[in-house]
Design goal:
The protein is an alpha/beta fold. It is built from 15 helices and 9 strands. It has 2 domains: 189 residues, 3-Layer(aba) Sandwich (Rossmann fold), CATH 3.40.50; 114 residues, no CATH class.
C-alpha cells in the first residue's frame, strides 16, 4: 500500500540554493528581535558559501538603539526610505501595527519592478492593511521561533520551522528566491529544521487563533488554579513551580515536539498518565469549544483587525488600561518573587557556611 500524500508541502535543505541570491541587494527593514537574528544568520550562511562578496546586505531602521546595534554588528545602515531605494529584496521586519503606514510612506514609492518583499507575518497581507504593487514579488517567510532562539539554534548548527509562500510572482523567480532566503536564515537545516507551504492568510489566522484561543485558556487556567489552591490552603509557591516556573512544563511541550503529543505521556509516571487521562475525559469541552469558535470567528471575519485598528487610531487607551489592569491584579509576580527570594537566601546560606 502506498503512503498517503502529505496534506502540507514541506521543504528541506536541498530545496534552497544561496546562489540564487547572487547579485542581489538585501535590506532588513527593522533590526529588532527578528531582524537582527535573520540578518546575522543570512550573513553567516553567505560567508560559509563564499558568497558574501556577491550579495550585498544592509539594514534600514530608525536612528535609535537598533541603528547603533546594526552598526556594531558590521552592517551598513540607512534610513528606511534609502534602504528601500537601494535594495531589490526587502525583509519587512517592523511591528505589524506600524508596517502599513511605513510601507505606504517610505517603501512603496521606492520599489522597482521585480523587487521582492519578504513578510515574516501574514497579518498585513491577510487583512489588507497594505497592498503591494503588482510588479513586485510578494513572499512569506514566517519563522515559528523568536529571534534570540533562532540565532542560538543557528550558531549550534540546528534549524527551526517556518512557513513559506509565494503570494505574488512578478519576476518568475519568486520560489527560488524565498527558498534561498529560507536556507540562508537557517530554517531549512537538516538538523531539526524545515519549512512548510502555507498562505499568508492561513498563517495570520492560525497565529492569531493560537494567541486569542489557546493562550487565554492557559492563562485563565493557571489563574483559577491559584485561586483554588489558595482557598484549599496549598502553597502557591509550589503551584507556580509545578505549573511553569520550574521549566518542567516547557520540557513537556518540548517532548511533545520531539516524540508526539500522545507519546510524550509515556515519559511520565503511570499515576500521572492515569490521572491526566481521566481528568481530560471529565472536562466539559463545550465552553472551550465555544470560546475557540468565537475567537476564530472574530479573526476570520476581520472583527478583531477592525477593533485593533480603531484602538490604535484612538491612541491605544483601552490597551493601556488593560495592561495597567494586568499589573494591578497580578497574583503571579509576588509569588514568583517569593520563590526567587527564598532560593537566593538558601544559596547564600551555603556560601556563608550557615
Amino acid at each position: 500500500m502506498s503512503e498517503a500524500t502529505p496534506s502540507i508541502r514541506a521543504f528541506g535543505e536541498a530545496d534552497g540554493d544561496l546562489h540564487d541570491l547572487a547579485g542581489r541587494t538585501i535590506a532588513f527593514i527593522g533590526y529588532g528581535n527578528q531582524g537582527r537574528a535573520q540578518a546575522l544568520n543570512l550573513r553567516d550562511s553567505l560567508r560559509a558559501e563564499s558568497l558574501d562578496g556577491d550579495v550585498r546586505l544592509l539594514v534600514g531602521t530608525l536612528r535609535d538603539e537598533t541603528w547603533t546595534q546594526a552598526e556594531a554588528d558590521g552592517f551598513p545602515v540607512r534610513p528606511v526610505s534609502d534602504a528601500a531605494e537601494t535594495a531589490d529584496i526587502l525583509f519587512l521586519l517592523i511591528p505589524d501595527e506600524e508596517l502599513g503606514q511605513v510601507f505606504a510612506n517610505e517603501i512603496a514609492p521606492r520599489l522597482s519592478a521585480n523587487d521582492a518583499l519578504v513578510f515574516a507575518s501574514g497579518y498585513n497581507l491577510a487583512f489588507e492593511a497594505l497592498k503591494p504593487p503588482p510588479e513586485v514579488d510578494v513572499l512569506l517567510l514566517a519563522p515559528r521561533m523568536i529571534g534570540r532562539q533562532m540565532r542560538q539554534l543557528f550558531e549550534q548548527g540546528k534549524g527551526f520551522y517556518s512557513y513559506l509562500s509565494v503570494e505574488q510572482d512578478a519576476s518568475g523567480r519568486a520560489w527560488p528566491t524565498v527558498l534561498a532566503l529560507a536556507k540562508g536564515i537557517g530554517t531549512l537545516s537538516s538538523s531539526g529544521g524545515g519549512a512548510f507551504e502555507l498562505s499568508a492568510r492561513k498563517e495570520a489566522v492560525l497565529d492569531l487563533f493560537a494567541e486569542q484561543g489557546f493562550g487565554p485558556i492557559i492563562g485563565a487556567t493557571v489563574f483559577v488554579m491559584l485561586e483554588v489552591a489558595k482557598e484549599a490552603g496549598l502553597p502557591l509557591e509550589a503551584l507556580i513551580l509545578d505549573t511553569y516556573l520550574s521549566g518542567e512544563m516547557a520540557q513537556t511541550f518540548q517532548a511533545m515536539a520531539d516524540l508526539g503529543f500522545v507519546e510524550q505521556a509515556r515519559l511520565h509516571s503511570r499515576t500521572s498518565q492515569y490521572g491526566g487521562m481521566m481528568g481530560t475525559l471529565a472536562i466539559d469541552r463545550e465552553p472551550i469549544r465555544q470560546h475557540l469558535k468565537r475567537a476564530l470567528e472574530r479573526i476570520t471575519s476581520g472583527e478583531f483587525t477592525r477593533e485593533w485598528t480603531a484602538e490604535q487610531a484612538a491612541g491605544c487607551e483601552n490597551f493601556e488600561r488593560l495592561r495597567a489592569l494586568g499589573a494591578t491584579h497580578n497574583p503571579f509576580t509576588p509569588v514568583e518573587e517569593r520563590i526567587r527570594d527564598a532560593l537566593r537566601e538558601a544559596q547564600a546560606r551555603g556560601k556563608r557556611g550557615d
